[in-house]
Amino acid sequence: MDKKRSFDEFAQAYDAWFFDNMNLLNSEVNLVAYFMKDAGETFSVGCGSGLFESILKRDFNIPIQYGLEPSEGMAEIARKRGISVDVTTAEDADLGEEQYDTILFNGTPSYINDLQSVFHKAYTALRKRGKIVVIDVPKESSYAIMYNLAKSLETWEHPLLEGVHPRDPYPIEFVKVANWRTTTEKVEMLKAAGFQDFDYAQTLTKHPLYSNNMEEQPIPGFDCGDYVAICAFKK
Hints:
Blueprint: H1 3-9, H2 11-19, H3 22-34, E1 42-45, H4 51-60, E2 66-68, H5 72-80, E3 84-86, E4 100-106, H6 115-125, E5 126-136, H7 142-153, H8 172-176, H9 183-193, E6 196-203, E7 219-220, E8 227-233
Parallel strand pairs: 1-2, 1-4, 2-3, 4-5
Antiparallel strand pairs: 5-8, 6-7, 6-8
């Protein structure tokens, strides 16, 4: 099953999973907000259902009006949440030149095949001293290791995962089509695109089995969190 079809068919399941894991959702939203203060005009690459964007506007007064999303099912929900969405992939999108102050990739790098070319495109689309915020589950994290095991097994229902994954694991349909990258890999791609002045923050510092037990605030760095934000700037 390809990415677009997975997200089209399971768009409602995506939101439902987050609503079943509210502490985890709030922890991740807190991380997104960490680097989005004074974001200016922002474009969200892979905005999904617009869930994060709607919470950022409601709870942090961070408006994100524009985005792209390959899944029509997801985009339809995002539009109802007030986002102007282009239905296209990041690889095919035309982001223009010096159009935005901030470009956000929240949980989307693992679903972009040619991430390097997209980072180059984002660099061109940013205004001078514009920033890119790249947030995802790093490949070296507990979550990604668990996800890759579930992906190889093609199910959560396996003895190797018994007592390991959270009560409500991420839908296997989304796990199967993801390709997680290490923090180092993404940083090197961003540097190759021309970005500089890097900063990092992280959340979900508990084992996956316990990460929904309490809401977390972001902490600096990238060495212990299962959700990591990279912030960098255009020259």
